[in-house]
Amino acid sequence: MNNRNFLKSFFTEYWKYITVSAACKLNVFDILVSGEKTSLEISEDLSIKLENIELLLNGLLAIDFLDRIEGRYLLNNLSELLTDSHSETLKYACLNWSGEHLEAWSKLDESIKTGNSFFENKYKNNYFDFLDRNEEKLDHYHKAMNAYAMDDYKDITDVIDFNIHKSVMDVGGGYGAAISNIKERCSELDCYLFDLDLVIGKSNSGNSVKLLKGDFFVEIPKLSEAIILSRVLHDWNEEKAIQILNNTYQALPENGTLYIIENCSDKIDVDLSLLSLNMLVMCESLERSSYEYIALANQVKFKFMEAKQLNELQTILIFKK
């Protein structure tokens, strides 16, 4: 393919994602869990005009997100992962990148010129305050993050021996994928999940993890000798990140341990440039190097001990109080 043809195709690549996102929003994949259906049956099930649903179904066929046999549509290996009932569903991960994210990205030029989040300029709230005011969006966001976390933290206990502690708290841990994994492997360990009221209320961590409601910008409970901050600090500018770290410091006992888990740009081979642009348009933040996270932690007197690689993206930075 020559350069002109490549560019003409490249300009409309997002059409594919939006087609899949629309199917998730309309629950097209979910109604096919029970079995294959004709376009008329799908139209009737969803109460959508036949000619419109056929446009969408044909688009999904064109990009290999559905199969069709003798006029009946059925799920394939991709679309199965976009159903609510799948144990490893990525439906909400798909939905996460449309909506407000897509709108903010469409104004990337404004964020580049001003250094400000287009999202915050429009909604007069940071992204997470916006989510807190919309329970459904908050739930969808944390379901999306939980889907990523299930993959990201599956080997965490192979990298860190949490049994050296009596207790560990996952601060800002969402629906609890990381701490649930730790508790499953370290059954004698006291495990806590700390997050906002609405988040904790929908956590699926089970009875073995103790649930704590609160705000890490206000106060973190003094209950654990180790604290995890996983993919928390990258959401915030330097001032807010230091505020979180200071409250973490206050919550830990003397010689307590802090585990910061982040995509550290200097520790991986993956280019984080596009992810940093996403952090700018959404949060006025960025992906940082390990040196930058260490410098932030040093400002509140944490002592850096060592770094361990968790996976191809994430590094665990270990600190002592």
Automatic annotation (TrEMBL):
Domain of life: Bacteria
SUPFAM superfamilies given in the database record: S-adenosyl-L-methionine-dependent methyltransferases (SSF53335), Winged helix' DNA-binding domain (SSF46785)
Chain ranges of the O-methyltransferase dimerisation domain: 14-84
Entry keywords, A to Z: Methyltransferase, S-adenosyl-L-methionine, Transferase
Presence of the UniProt keyword Chaperone in the record: no
GO biological process: methylation
InterPro entries associated with the record: COMT-like, COMT_C, COMT_dimerisation, SAM-dependent_MTases_sf, WH-like_DNA-bd_sf, WH_DNA-bd_sf
GO function terms (MF aspect): methyltransferase activity
Transport found in the keyword field: no
Residue span(s) of domain O-methyltransferase C-terminal: 105-302
Name of the featured protein: Methyltransferase
